[in-house]
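Please check our next protein.
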Amino acid sequence: MDFEKEVLESEVPVVVDFYAEWCPPCLVVAEMLEELEGEYRGRVKFVKVDVDEHEELAEKYEVMSVPTIAIFHRGELVDGMIGVVKKEQLRERLDALLNGSG
């Protein structure tokens, strides 16, 4: 995966799911993100980053635990959440960002 191209150069906001294969809560978050991906198709991009395969990215963005959701917009990290979060909580943050108030 080309993080710079997929995330930092994206024309739309990007939700990055920092996860690990061995992490059960990551499965819960992944399912929720798949549902949101359908809702936000074309307006928000969703990307998964395995912290074991991309340790340098996890270190760069100070991912200390998984799952961690990072939201990037115009190449900048603008928001983030750690652990299992409610779909509505993430939806509110994405809507605020898309509406220019985030």
Remarks:
- The two ends are 27 Å apart (CA to CA).
- The chain is about 40% helix and 25% strand.
- Residues 2 and 46 are 14 Å apart (CA to CA).
- The domain at 3-92 is CATH 3.40.30.10 (Glutaredoxin).
